[in-house]
Amino acid sequence: MKKGFTLIELLGVITLLGVIILIVFPIVLKQINTAKKEINNANDAIIIEAAKDYMADNINDYKKIEGNTYCINLDTLLNSQYLNMNLKNTDLTDIDNARIVKATYTNNFNYEIVDECTAFQSDQEQGDEPTKYKNNIKFPTGDENETYIAEVYLDPKDLNKACTEEEAKPNSKTGTKEGCMKWYVYKDSDSSNPSSGTYTMILDHNTTATVEWASKKDYGDSSKAGNVGITYSSGTPSGSYGTNGNNNKGPLTVLAQLKNDTDSWSTELGTSETYQPSTGDFQWTIDYSGYKARLITAEEVADITKEDRSKGSNASSGPEANWTLGSDDFILDRRTGDCFWNGSCDTDGVISKYWWLFNNLGNGNNYSCKTYGCKEGEISDPCGYWTSSPGEIDIAYSWRVFYYGNMGFDGVFINTMYGVRPVITVSKSKFIQE
After folding, report:
1. Residue 69: beta bridge partners?
2. Fewest C-beta atoms under 10 Å: which of 41, 53, 139, 425?
């Protein structure tokens, strides 16, 4: 009687099972991969539908303009409750919330799920004739470090003459006051219309290397305020200049230098600014009528960098955390400027998001602003430039922008570090082809 399988029979069974596995396994594997793909496609479809709903409810932020690209990340959709659950991968782990819906408009919106996305937005509505610009203006390409509105090239003595980037390059240096120069637009009075309104822009270098904000001589000159367009709400402020200076009469000296530097320009401002100094119950006002340029304000710098400088310097989180702890400075971009304080100044090639606000500055000794993330600068350049804003916590101080990418206080009497960097306002029509 046969009690088991022979070796030949066992080998036959094993061979048969191997053949069955070879036939079945690829089919099963294909079905598994197909199921995973269907799950991923279903997740992507849910995310894209949520992004469509989000864009539809925020239609003013997602205009149907040819070539525009918008980036919506999963966190935005979850936080705004357009997605009400965390989606799962096929291994049951949570989908990475850093993933992004990229929506590009070409006749219709086209959607895709990506890991990286660069937004691009034009104000040109579909159906309009494209705005044709002269070669004296260049718009950002979408790089995160291009936080200005536009880079423009013009001669402030002749605004009707269009000049080019190449013509401006030799004049991007301290002390240059005329000729084709480079400017950075940071304010558009009518962003809804490319040819209406004005651009406000700051020069890319100091026209005067260094000057006091308010010198002791000018502080004691009773006619100086009137000469530079400063008026006081309650008579001339009292007090002495002291050892460290006094800001209560305004930026007497730097305004006089600004007026001298720009007197031959063809621009006109006609604006005014009012300030409340850090002590006293009076105010003083700068009347820029008759000026061809003005100084940037500390408030404008804070607004450009999304900082609220009224918060103080001791915040540990939130937007105001960019303030340098324990001082009266705040860093324009924590990624680069913070190295000045922590003792390690190798930015490893990282460019500051606000490099254009402190280009062409240095410390005259061993560093230029390029150490701290600017694009252009020499060691021999001045340390910074004055704003028109007085310091709030001490009457001896006023605000200035510094070469390591920060804005802070310093003594109004200092005449070896901070200079004049003009701001002008120009009609946008100067950059449109007729």
Report:
1. 104, 120
2. 41
